[in-house]
Task: inverse folding
């Protein structure tokens, strides 16, 4: 590990990705189906240093798929970091140009997603099995845009192929300006414990900033992953589900008071309905509602939770969430009153 990385930096201090300033060192991970625009807006409002879009399929963006365009939106978030996924250099480069033209400040290339649907198309973490091909995608993307390009990856495909340091060094040589490493292999998915020490080998291989990712829940975790990896910043993901303010809390910002959570959750719900439209929004919001209830209303009756999670009546859902998160073990349903 390089000598200047032996002492972890303070989480609240700014850093830069190329010429783009980032206000602190806690980054919200890109999570497909989770970090949509409403979630990112809340996380940034509560103090996250940087938020990243859900994975945007590059070819689908080029061919004007509605979902890809929805995921691309930044709505004033600054900086606006867009993660692109794909396997073909042409589509990644064209998608990067589109993203830049539509307000992206940073392009991130997904080489870390372990999902079967993604690796089945030989994208995401599957690219770590083909370093030469991965580098061709990186080179094409860097050449296509003027904004910084970054790469998010895992340690390797499996324990026998830990090649993140090699790929990171080659990516830096190709012009990439930041590397993020999740401390697991693809074959681990999210099982076991992320290996924070293994990320240090990537730190030794590159001079550009490094973000460490994996199993960060607390402020103590954030400081420890920086100490053990030598990274410049920390990425948090699943620990923010059901609490989009958590990234900011890790930096030192105040999260909502318990009495404020019901209103904030209803606001988030209404933001999703506006973003997706009522019909789609009701369905899309359910995973978030479940996380909120699990974290903040664990004593809610199973019947009440089921009523909330299955209802198509957005007014009922908003009222019921307000009741549940205010301490009620059950909820009064409009359907029952009828």
Result:
């Amino acid at each position: 590990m390089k000598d200047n990385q032996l002492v972890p930096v303070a989480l609240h201090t700014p850093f830069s990705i190329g010429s783009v300033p980032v206000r602190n060192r806690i980054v919200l991970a890109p999570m497909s189906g989770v970090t949509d625009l409403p979630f990112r807006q809340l996380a940034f409002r509560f103090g996250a240093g940087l938020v990243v879009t859900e994975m945007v399929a590059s070819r689908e963006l080029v061919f004007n798929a509605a979902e890809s365009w929805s995921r691309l939106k930044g709505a004033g978030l600054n900086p606006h970091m867009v993660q692109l996924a794909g396997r073909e250099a042409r589509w990644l480069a064209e998608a990067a140009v589109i993203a830049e033209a539509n307000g992206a400040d940073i392009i991130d290339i997904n080489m870390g997603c372990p999902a079967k649907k993604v690796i089945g198309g030989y994208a995401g973490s599957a690219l770590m099995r083909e370093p030469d091909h991965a580098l061709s995608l990186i080179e094409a993307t860097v050449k296509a845009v003027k904004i910084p390009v970054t790469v998010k990856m895992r340690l390797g495909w499996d324990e026998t192929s830990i090649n993140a340091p090699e790929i990171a060094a080659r990516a830096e040589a190709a012009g990439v300006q930041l590397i993020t490493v999740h401390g697991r292999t693809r074959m681990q998915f999210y099982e076991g414990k992320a290996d924070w020490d293994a990320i240090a080998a990537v730190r030794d291989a590159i001079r550009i900033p490094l973000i460490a990712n994996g199993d960060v829940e607390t402020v103590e975790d954030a400081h420890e992953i920086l100490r053990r990896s030598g990274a410049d910043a920390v990425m948090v993901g699943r620990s923010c589900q059901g609490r989009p303010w958590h990234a900011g809390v890790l930096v030192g910002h105040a999260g909502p008071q318990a009495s404020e959570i019901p209103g904030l959750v209803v606001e988030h719900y209404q933001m999703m309905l506006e973003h997706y439209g009522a019909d789609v929004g009701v369905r899309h919001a359910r995973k978030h509602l479940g996380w909120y209830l699990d974290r903040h209303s664990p004593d809610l009756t199973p019947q009440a939770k089921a009523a909330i999670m299955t209802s198509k009546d957005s007014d009922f859902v908003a009222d019921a969430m307000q009741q549940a998160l205010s301490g009620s073990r059950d909820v009064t349903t409009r359907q029952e009153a009828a």
The longest helix spans residues 261-276. The two ends are 67 Å apart (CA to CA). The CA atoms of residues 273 and 280 lie 8 Å apart. The first strand starts at residue 15 and ends at 17.
